Amino acid sequence: MTESIIHEARMALRRRHRALRDAMTAEECAALSRMICRRLTQEVWYASCPVIYGYYPLGREADCLAFLKQALADGKQVALPRMRGAGSAEMDFYAVASPDQVAEGAFHVMEPLLTCPPVREETAVVLVPGVVFDPAGGRYGYGKGCY
Model confidence over 84-132: pLDDT tens digits? Predict the structure, then answer.
């Protein structure tokens, strides 16, 4: 297939799955988010993982803030992404002592405050938001390519 056909197929897949996600009620989203958070704390890697790179949910994305709060309570370092600039597709992660240490940033996404220290830990788990993932774990996000 040509690149343009592949691109169009991915765009259609994103649109379809975003519509399915956005059609869920707030109650359905909250219940599924609680299930995800509970499951994350039960994963084998959780006990030994020192750093978790998370994200602040946007719209109907899975809300993992309860998981991040639990990770902080368990003594783990939690870092959230901040875009390098409004037009940039690059981001850096910054440690937060609470998921409340955020302000609205690029693309109306909540980002760590400018006073938060940068984190560059390679031994970490990364929570990645996405609209849909392929069977191999490849992300079909919003098309910006940040992750």
Answer: 876 677 889 999 999 999 999 877 889 999 999 999 988 899 998 888 8
Tens digit of each residue's pLDDT (9 = 90 or more) over 19-78: 998 899 999 999 999 999 999 999 999 999 999 999 999 888 899 999 999 999 999 999
Beta carbons within 10 angstroms of residue 91's beta carbon:
20
Dihedral angle computed from the Cα positions of residues 19, 57, 139 and 33, in that order, rounded to the nearest 10 degrees = -80
Report the C-alpha gap between 95 and 2 in whole angstroms. 41
* Single-letter amino acid, residue 61: E
Phi, psi dihedral angles at 91 (to 5 degrees): -140, 160
Which alpha helices (H) appear in 43-116, and where do they start and end? Answer: 65-73
For residue 51, CA distances in Å to 24, 44, 64, 80, 92 come to 31, 15, 15, 11, 14
Compute how many other C-beta atoms are within 10 angstroms of the C-beta atom of residue 87: 7
State the Cα–Cα distance between residues 107 and 5, nearest whole angstrom: 27
